[in-house]
């Protein structure tokens, strides 16, 4: 089985976690306290605290098919990055790369868990048709030969390839976010926040990896 064709190893764990959390309820049965909803006033006008009935009547933008496709593709995209980070400890002793890879692994596992919950809440499957074409359909995804080369390398060669390939991978994620905005997606509050977080976090990591790659090349 190739690296690209590996199943999403986190999907089962995420599904179980979601199932367990769904079965856990507050012992008191009392409703959770909620914060007041404040409606921002127009320029020059004061804000207004809405009553519970008014707050319930306020509906935000709905999610779209583009939003669902983006989230499903991001699961596959993140899964490949997690595969890459899983090779780091056995192939390099570089402390900075090991720390970077561990932060990436933890953050992207957490994001997959968030995406799984987001999709479940909207009645959408974790994987869509595009998941079967991961190598060529998503920006930044490593091809089979790149994955094989990375997995077979070690030491300085691995460090250079890891940084180069992860920069490529992150740049692809930024392109996916840009495509989402261009399609008019990301207007729903939760997915909009998630997409902006991906944009910000991975942009920062690209800058960091470019500096690390320059150090390795000097």
UniProtKB/TrEMBL annotation:
Does the entry feature the keyword Membrane, yes or no?
no
Organism, by scientific name, is Agromyces flavus
What are the protein's UniProt keywords? Signal
Tell me where in this chain the DUF305 domain is found: 67-213
Q: Which PROSITE patterns match?
A: PROKAR_LIPOPROTEIN
Any signal peptide, and if so, which residues?
1-30
Supply the name of the protein.
Uncharacterized conserved protein, DUF305 family
Organism classification: Bacteria, Bacillati, Actinomycetota, Actinomycetes, Micrococcales
Entries under Gene3D superfamilies matching the protein: 1.20.1260.10
The answer to whether keyword Flavoprotein applies is no
Ranges for region Disordered: 25-59
């Amino acid at each position: 089985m190739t690296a690209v064709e590996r199943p999403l190893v986190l999907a089962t764990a995420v599904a179980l976690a979601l199932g367990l959390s769904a079965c856990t309820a507050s012992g008191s049965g009392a409703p959770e306290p909620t914060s007041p909803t404040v409606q921002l006033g127009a320029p020059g006008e004061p804000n207004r605290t809405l009553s519970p009935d008014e707050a319930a009547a306020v509906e935000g933008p709905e999610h779209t098919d583009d939003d669902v496709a983006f989230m499903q593709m991001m699961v596959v995209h993140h899964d490949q990055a997690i595969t890459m980070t899983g090779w780091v400890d056995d192939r390099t002793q570089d402390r900075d790369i090991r720390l970077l890879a561990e932060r990436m692994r933890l953050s992207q596992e957490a994001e997959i868990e968030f995406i799984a919950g987001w999709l479940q809440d909207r009645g959408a499957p974790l994987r869509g048709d595009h998941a079967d074409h991961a190598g060529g359909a998503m920006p930044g995804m490593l091809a089979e030969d790149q994955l094989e080369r990375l997995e077979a390398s070690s030491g300085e060669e691995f460090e250079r390839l890891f940084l180069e390939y992860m920069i490529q991978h992150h740049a692809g994620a930024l392109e996916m976010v840009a495509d989402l905005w261009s399609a008019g997606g990301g207007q729903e509050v939760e997915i909009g926040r998630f997409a902006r977080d991906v944009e910000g976090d991975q942009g920062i990591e690209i800058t960091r990896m470019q500096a690390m790659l320059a150090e390795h090349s000097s």
